# Entry
Amino acid sequence: MDSRFFVRAAATLAVALAAALACVWLHTPLPWMLGPLIATSALSLLGAPTQSWTPLRNAAQWAIGVALGLYFTPEVTALVLQLWWAILLAIVWALLLGWGFGRWLHGVLRGRMPGGPKELRATSYFAGAIGGASEMTLLAERAGARTDLVAAAHSLRLLLVTLLLPVAFAWLGLHGSDPTLPGARVVRLPGLGLLVLATLAGAWLLARTGRANPWFLGALLVAMGLTMAGIQLSAMPQAFTNAAQLVIGVSLGVRFRAEFVHTAPRWLLAVTVGTVGMIVLCAGFAVLLAWATGLSAATLVLGTSPGGIAEMAITAKVLQLGVPVVTAFQVCRLVAVLMLVEPLHRWGWLR
# Structure
């Protein structure tokens, strides 16, 4: 990486910060994430040389993981464990929904896209699976799918869910229905140092194993373990989580280059329509699950939505919508999808 890379990255962060501050002034929902996301996406699509730096994204994932882990007090953990059956239902729902989305993509675009039948089936299957963009793209490559279309589908899905849900919640006035508080609520400098060291060690160890999302999950697991054990070292400074939201918004926004729109526009249109459909279906499923569990429907919409862990958990944190429940649902789904999607494809199930 030369100096131009860092100049572009710094300029992108400066624009993102300006957008975040503007959104704070305008009182928009999730200003520190949506402002940078919208500004960076727009500039990228216009051809500006926006840039994201991977170590910063890792640091942002770590900060969000720590902040979320602090919510898992013994009382909250007991509540989440009682919801094991609802989480299991949500996993099955996610697998079936992803399969249905993939089948729909295949049916809409069959005969209109280049490639053989096997390649197109694999492409639509992994593009429809509700998992992380990088992980699903890697699995798609192993299956001989078109990785460019799979990556584009997941990037667009995450963008749409991250933009639409917070705006819809703000418009409907859905916030504060489950204001769970973290175990540690005061920043203590000696304790914060120990918390940083412990969670960084957890993230580093998980990264060494080659697992998905190690900086988020490693930090989350360590912070959860400490909080569940009643060890409250320190809260996370609000500035840390604001900066993390900004970087996550930038990391998602820089994916949308000008050539992105010109690559298979029919595919992108189908993904857009399908994603909106999945959001509506997930909302209906969440309402039914809320009736069965007694939890807030808004919380379960975030927990079962086809969005990313960090983005949905941030939304829950800012809007006070049951952070531990949303995090538990999203993390369990991620792990299950990563473990099951490839074997199900290989065995011929769900395709």
